[in-house]
Give the backbone structure.
Amino acid sequence: MGLRWAVREPQLGDVRSLVEAELACFEDPWPPPFFISEILAEGRFNRVLVEPAGALVAYLFCAWQFLDLHVLKVAALPVRRRQGLGRTLMELAERHARESGGESLTLEVRPGNLAAIALYEGLGYDRVGRRPRYYANGDDAVIMTKRISG
Ligand SMILES: CC(C)(COP(=O)(O)OP(=O)(O)OC[C@H]1O[C@@H](n2cnc3c(N)ncnc32)[C@H](O)[C@@H]1OP(=O)(O)O)[C@@H](O)C(=O)NCCC(=O)NCCS
């Protein structure tokens, strides 16, 4: 990752920045209470990437579901895309899952989100199914999984 960004766990003081970033990254952004409850919850793997001056540029929220680490959210600010931030965060999640004895990582993605699908496929995730009308606007979700053991 070099010296351009630092990685750390998000804190409650990051919620304002996360909500701002979320508005720039998603058409169905998480509201502030979602971030607060994920930051405070047990059994999570959450990380933010911050620039040397402290500005948040990318973030990842994951939750364990038995031995599967579920990637709830990964995003990079639009002006910081294609600089390896998304891949860096996904690799951190995978390393954490391996070191914790996890068996797999799973996520949902919109079929039309070609950037995200390219990222996940490049990391070895397979399309394993579809959740009909998963998103608020009625879009299906593609389910993608990467097995890391067994
Ligand atoms: C998906 C997202 C997180 C990728 O983050 P990123 O930091 O730009 O991704 P990276 O720079 O790490 O890209 C890693 C690889 O993914 C693929 N990729 C990423 N963006 C791509 C795009 N727009 N088109 C095609 N491939 C893309 C490429 O293979 C890329 O490797 P390369 O740059 O060496 O070619 C980012 O586009 C984003 O925040 N999107 C909005 C939020 C979102 O949709 N999140 C996922 C929800 S499931």
About this structure: The mean pLDDT is 96. The first strand starts at residue 6 and ends at 8.
